[in-house]
Amino acid sequence: MPAPASDVADRVEATEVVGSAVGIFERACSLDSTGHSDLAVPVYREALDLGLTGERRRRAVIQLASSLRNVGPSPESVVLLKTEMVLEADQLDDAVRAFLALALVDTGCEREAVSRAVGAVALHLPRYQHWVANDASLLMGTGPESTVDADEPAGRPRQPVRAAEESPGSTGRGGG
Q: Exposed e or buried b for every residue in 43-75, given b needs 16+ CB within 10 A?
């Protein structure tokens, strides 16, 4: 059972500097982590409006998008996270990708969600990175080898024929 929101807010408010973007962000985090996403949303917005910067700014955007999802399916979550995807890369990129995939599912864009999630996983594979990333792009019809086959239902991308890349005896899928 979540702690009463007023208790959590009072404890955090007692330690924050009035008007401090960082303090307000920490207050939103406290509300969020105690099950009060609905109350955290406007507090995250306030912290961002006050000019929260650096990693805390990115965390606030991710957590705001997540809280919006907790309140209900939110196209705004998708917009916030897609905007984050084009910013300078950092250690939170995978978190952005993961929450974006979840937000896409919530808004009925399952195919794009799977494409983005599989594309994110591809970055960490010790082998098959190229093929997995390409197949993820093909889900959206955006891969370098994508073609649309009129005979496929709903214009689904046709899987290209791939030649073996490695030595004889290879599986033809990037080795192994």
A: bbebbbeeebeeebbbbbbbbbbbbbbbeeebe
Q: Burial, 173: exposed, middle or buried (Cβ in 10 Å; 0-12, 13-18, 19+)?
A: middle
Pseudo-torsion of CA 19, 21, 23, 26, nearest 10°? Answer: 140
For the entire predicted model, the pTM comes to 0.72
Tally the C-alpha atoms within 13 A of residue 165's C-alpha that lie toward its C-beta.
Answer: 11
Looking at residue 74, the DSSP 8-state letter turns out to be -
What are the tens digits of pLDDT across the range 114-156?
Answer: 999 999 999 999 999 999 999 999 998 876 654 443 333 333 3
